[in-house]
Amino acid sequence: MHRQLLDRVAALIAPPRCAGCAAATEPGVWICAGCREQLHAMRVGRADQSTLAAFPYAGAARPLVAAVKFQGAVALAGELAELMRPRLPSWFEEAEWIVPVPAHPERKRTRGYNQSLLLARALARGTDLRVVDCLRRTALAPPQSEQSRAQRLKLPRRAITVEERAVRQNHPRSLAEFPTKVVVCDDVVTTGVTLEVCAQAIRDWHHPTGTSLVRCVAFASAG
Ligand SMILES: [Zn+2]
């Protein structure tokens, strides 16, 4: 069926609403002009040598993250990536791989997808970045949103590892050609511990000669 017709049918069943403020919008419009304006006026969430979070986890940024996580809005991940793009640092363009933070297996099962992977794919669009979904959670820790801050700070170093099979699917050549610049991608960075454990897993895996430079991007930073 024609896409526009599908949009119109969907609009009759559930009128389109802005994912940021729930105001009525046109079909295919995920974020209203008011929310976009608010986001553009926001400061950058976090910017240091190794991490860039495009927005603070506040205002319209909060419901947008929730919408990607819980309402299955795949197209919204593309919108978030476009909002991030003008705020991305030069090192983002220099990276060779973009690796999503792995979802907790239970969450992935109920949701059907990993929102960090959706964001990574959207960010890679139109660039030379290769999306390599190679990180896996190993420890049976509860999903992060159900953990206390203290628990999150103690995420064990081996809680996330690189799955070699997944790397080989993406990168079948010699490991000597493992990229030196990798970007880990998450929707929200809180303490930064998860991103650091992911980065460490990639550095550890890329032994013994590896000097992988692993940096992180996120849509928003909380705390
Ligand atoms: Zn809005």
Walk me through this protein's architecture.
By secondary structure, this protein is an alpha/beta fold. The chain has a domain at 44-56 and 89-221. Helix content is 39%, strand content 17%. The protein is built from ten helices and eight strands. The protein has helices at 3-13, 33-41, 61-70, 74-84, 90-94, 105-111, 115-124, 149-153, 164-170, 193-205; strands at residues 46-47, 51-56, 97-100, 130-131, 135-137, 160-162, 181-189, 213-221. The protein has a six-stranded mixed beta sheet with strand order 1-2-8-7-3-4. The radius of gyration is 18 Å and the shape is globular. Bound molecules: zinc ion (ZN). Zinc ion binds at residues 18, 20-21, 23, 32, 34-35.
Tag the structure with descriptive keywords.
single chain, 223 residues, alpha/beta, six-stranded mixed beta sheet, two-stranded antiparallel sheet, 10 helices, globular, binds zinc ion
